[in-house]
């Protein structure tokens, strides 16, 4: 009696595990499709791609919601945080500079983050914030403002 019960438990566990993995695999196949978020709501990349799609369709509210969800899914994922910077630039909403400031405070020693933010602050014509970002980068590595394109005034 114990053996058939054990076989049944293992079989059911195997079937559910395979279904779970198949769902994740399908989500990865369609990662640039809006339905990928439905298939795997724990992947920030899917929200980012859907935000881009919504931006192209003119849905700024939906795009902002998606980038906020992407950050909420994994708030310590630096790749996600950096890759969302251009989306905030295209959104150009009041939350844009708030997000930039959040990154500057959270990662004050990351020149990559500062370079990305400086580039988009300048494009948005937020010159006072741009100058502060340049000064923050200069305090970390004084020579970077002389040669890195993101820190040069255009």
The number of distinct β-strands equals 0
Q: CATH first level of the largest domain: which class?
A: Mainly Alpha
What portion of residues belong to β-strands? under 5%
Using the coordinates shown, work out and report the CATH topology of the largest domain. Answer: Serine Threonine Protein Phosphatase 5, Tetratricopeptide repeat
Overall tally of domains? 2
Structural class, by secondary structure, is mainly alpha
CATH architecture of the largest domain: Alpha Horseshoe
Low-confidence stretches: none
Average pLDDT figure: 86
Shape: elongated
Largest sheet: none
Gyration radius, in Å: 21 Å
End-to-end gap? 78 Å
- Seen as an oligomer or otherwise, the chain set is single chain
SS summary, helix count: 10
Order of helices and strands: HHHHHHHHHH
Helix content: over 70%
Summarize the structure.
The chain is built from 10 helices and no strands. With about 150 residues, the chain is mainly alpha-helical. The chain folds into 2 domains: about 1-90, Alpha Horseshoe (Serine Threonine Protein Phosphatase 5, Tetratricopeptide repeat); about 95-154, no CATH class.
Please characterize this protein's 3D structure.
This protein is mainly alpha-helical. The protein folds into 2 domains: 1-91, Serine Threonine Protein Phosphatase 5, Tetratricopeptide repeat (Alpha Horseshoe), CATH 1.25.40; 95-154, no CATH class. 76% of the residues lie in helices and 0% in strands. It contains 10 helices and no strands. It has helices spanning 2-29, 35-39, 44-56, 60-73, 78-83, 85-91, 94-106, 111-123, 127-140, 144-147. Helix 6 (85-91) runs antiparallel to helix 7 (94-106) and helix 8 runs antiparallel to helix 9 (127-140). The termini are far apart. The model has no long low-confidence stretch (mean pLDDT 86).
